[in-house]
Specification:
The protein has two domains: 364 residues, Alkaline Phosphatase, subunit A; 117 residues, Gyrase A, domain 2. The protein is 34% helix and 19% strand. It has 18 helices and 21 strands. The strands form five sheets. It has a ten-stranded mixed beta sheet with strand order 5-8-7-6-11-1-12-20-2-21, sandwiched between helices. Strands 14-15-17-16 form a four-stranded antiparallel beta sheet. α13 packs across α15. The longest helix is centred in the middle third of the chain and has 24 residues. It starts with a helix and ends in a 17-residue tail after the last helix.
């Protein structure tokens, strides 16, 4: 009996030691890289121009999932990045889009607008309080007792705030007018490195007028798209239009260098990854179209953007290795999973579908509702494929909201170009089906409208009082998710993961709690 007990004790001791040996070490630094509009097919097509230090290093040495999926309608840079860092859909975290319509004020504003906080180096008023749940960074700050340093750098405010969260030591973005690195007074600490740069001669404010974007390599290597008619050595000057120069700069690959320069300054300062508790650095890069590109989708510009982004990623990885060590750093790279395509049809081409005019549909719907319920202005606003009703008027008239919504949806779904109309009552209380759940994931009470319009692919949307139009597309962008660095074994997984699985997996590696609304599964291949 004693021998049996001794054997069992020995077995469990060995098993425990083996388990301890295989458990990944907690990284000293986490670097979360989101790349706005990164496309996986472009990574494959453009790889012949890449070096060995950037994308190729990540793809060959990392754990690579073939695709990421966002399970809600109309993803954009604000809703997707908030989903990545909270592990939750907009129905929980509250950021349904870059901007929102505020019904009681009858105006559009940033989803992160907060009148209670001023800006540093900006007149914009922003805060992370619009995020209704915790983020990865928040949980790290709590677990470390406030000791972990957390920084976020991004082209736009929504990206920096979403990735930095409520507990950031600093969340910085490029101000749209001056080009300074801006932040909110919500964040109490000032980072001297950022302030020094803003006041220096190297600030974008002082240098943007001399920046000219030309091809980085011979354009004969930018030969992926056989449909490009005019391949030429383009030149884009950012000093021509002082009102638009920063906005256009942020659509160019030079914005990635600006973000990367700040990240590398932080790494070289020696303040990150040097203590017992892990630190956290969130960076957002850009891989979308340039508005002024004349070649539209099949342009030399987009190939140059990816080439330059590859160079910047290589520079960043070298800086991480020199400052902290790649083996001490957990790095993840994920796309925002959508792409704003610039579509130009050949002259005279006729496509399936037609033009959808939201203002006309709104007027017809209101006339129908007048015939049923009386001559009132029942609709307050059409905004971003949503219709907002006058809820107070409905209450005053004692009209059943669910019935009102359903009758409006039944009428509107008969309109040309409308595939489906989903009511907020359906999403909150109706019978489940996959499409309703998809829209439910993007709905947040008090922000979203009464009706959601699903439009048919190919139809051109002519927005009221806007010179812009766009064609509806439902096909998703394929883009990999890459984990690299700290005890990550190179492996390729042919599986689509949900964006909500990233946050709980990263926090599990950190041995801290997942964000409080994260329900996604932990990615088993990370362990």
């Amino acid at each position: 009996m004693i021998r049996i007990l001794s054997s069992l004790v020995a077995f469990f001791s060995v098993a425990t030691l083996a388990a301890q040996h295989t458990t990944p070490e907690v990284p000293k630094l986490v670097v979360g890289i989101t790349i706005d509009q990164l496309r996986g097919d472009y990574l494959e097509m453009f790889k012949h121009t890449f070096g060995q230090k950037g994308f190729n290093r990540l793809l060959s040495g990392g754990l690579v999932y073939s695709n990421v999926h966002y399970d809600f309608p109309k993803p954009d840079k604000a809703s997707t990045i908030t989903t990545i860092f909270t592990g939750a859909n907009p129905s929980y975290h509250g950021i349904t889009a870059e901007n929102k319509y505020v019904l009681n004020l009858n105006r559009e504003e940033s989803s992160f607008f907060d009148d209670n906080y001023l800006g540093n180096f900006t007149t914009d008023k922003r805060s992370p309080l619009a995020i209704k749940v915790s983020t990865m960074a928040d949980e790290l700050k709590i677990a470390s007792g406030g000791q972990s340093d957390i920084y976020a750098f991004a082209p736009d405010a929504s990206q920096a705030i979403a990735s930095g969260g409520h507990a950031a030591s600093g969340a910085y973005w490029i101000e749209d007018v001056t080009g300074k690195w801006a932040t909110s007074t919500f964040y109490k600490n000032k980072q001297p490195i950022v302030d020094q740069h803003n006041r220096s001669a190297q600030s974008l404010t002082n240098t943007i007028g001399s920046i000219i974007w030309r091809p980085a390599i011979d354009i004969s290597r930018y030969n992926v798209f056989p449909y490009t008619k005019n391949r030429y050595n383009f030149q884009h000057y950012f000093g021509l239009d002082k009102k638009e120069n920063v906005r256009l700069f942020k659509q160019s690959p030079y914005v990635n260098k600006e973000v990367n320069d700040m990240a590398i300054r932080m790494l070289e300062s020696g303040s990150l990854g040097k203590r017992m508790n892990p630190d956290y650095l969130a960076l957002t890069f850009y891989a979308g179209n340039f508005e002024k590109a004349l070649d539209q989708n099949y342009s030399v510009e987009i190939q140059d953007t990816y080439y330059r982004l590859d160079q910047e990623l290589g520079r960043l990885l070298d800086a991480i290795d020199a400052a902290v060590g790649i083996r001490n750093t957990l790095i993840f790279v994920v796309s925002t999973g959508y792409f704003n395509e610039q579509e130009l049809l050949p002259e005279g081409m006729v496509t399936a579908g037609g033009d959808f005019h939201p203002d006309r549909s709104q007027a017809l719907l209101n006339m129908y509702l007048m015939a049923l319920y009386g001559r009132e202005q029942w609709i307050r606003k059409y905004y971003d494929r949503q219709i907002y009703f006058d809820r107070k008027l409905l209450e005053d008239k004692k009209i059943d909201l669910a019935e009102f919504q359903q009758k409006a949806a039944t009428f509107l779904v008969q309109s040309a170009g409308v595939q489906d109309v989903i009511t907020s009552h359906q999403m909150l209380h109706g019978a489940y089906n996959e499409n309703v759940q998809f829209y439910r994931n993007g709905y947040y009470k008090g922000i979203s409208g009464d009706l959601f319009l699903e439009l048919q692919p190919g139809w051109r949307v002519i927005e009221p009082q806007s010179p812009d139009s766009y064609r509806v597309r439902h096909n998703a962008v394929i883009s990999p998710v890459i984990f690299f660095g700290s005890d990550i074994k190179p492996r390729k997984i042919e599986r689509t993961i949900d964006a909500t699985e990233i946050a709980p997996s990263v926090t599990y590696r950190l041995r801290i709690r997942a964000p409080n609304a994260a329900r996604g599964k932990i990615l088993k291949e990370l362990f």
